[in-house]
């Protein structure tokens, strides 16, 4: 799937896990190689500094270098950094950093230091849109406690602040509301375990977790789903769902990194406060990953 020239957020953009060395320092060389490997295996681009990339526990210097590393590896048109921060001014600075590094778009959570009201949300997106780089909203009411409901997204788009939304609420009914309210707003699948449902509802892209470990089969799943090949999509979705559902669990970073380790990718440890998986969690993820490998999905 070719990257869309004027809508670079379309297709499969992988929210990249971040390789850390034994001292929990960022391994930029392995990260660059991972970004290249994802594109070589059919993914359209990457989303560095998302929650899967542990952006909250990076220093500003690390966070900036992660973006620069991705751009150097695969080109800025394929890189959509997360620019979330507690303050709107800080988010705007991250958007400016992404713009200056050559990125084509950024992904932005609503204010997440407190339960922001609608006026605060609008002001936040207005400020970051002022950086002059297209913004994809990220709706994650589970973690942020701020819900970008379809009516609010329509208003944000109408004001020119956002061009698309990564939808992580899990409520697939919203796809149809959005299509009615604001058909020009691109809907991106935001949780791996509702991929098929949102693809059938008209999603234009997928900000994805599990392609970090299994890019070829997950890209095939996405292509079949958006292309209407339900026989192929349903079979792959059923095979992969025991893993995909971990993308919506609290332990999603540890889970995806473990699957990466199993298939020979640079997964590894997480920075605190994330702790290792419980033995029963590790066993379940290991079994599901090994089953996917045995089925030829790696």
Question: How would you describe this structure to a colleague?
Answer:
The chain is α/β, with parallel strands linked by helices. The protein is 46% helix and 9% strand. The protein has helices spanning 28-40, 60-74, 88-101, 118-129, 141-144, 150-158, 173-181, 195-200, 215-227, 230-244, 252-263, 279-294, and strands at 11-15, 45-47, 106-108, 135-139, 164-167, 186-189, 205-208. The chain has a 7-stranded parallel β-sheet. β5, α7 (173-181) and β6 form a beta-alpha-beta unit. The longest helix is centred in the C-terminal third of the chain and has 16 residues, at 279-294. The relative contact order is 0.12. The model has no long low-confidence stretch (mean pLDDT 97). This is Dihydrodipicolinate synthase family protein. Pfam families: DHDPS. Keywords: Lyase.
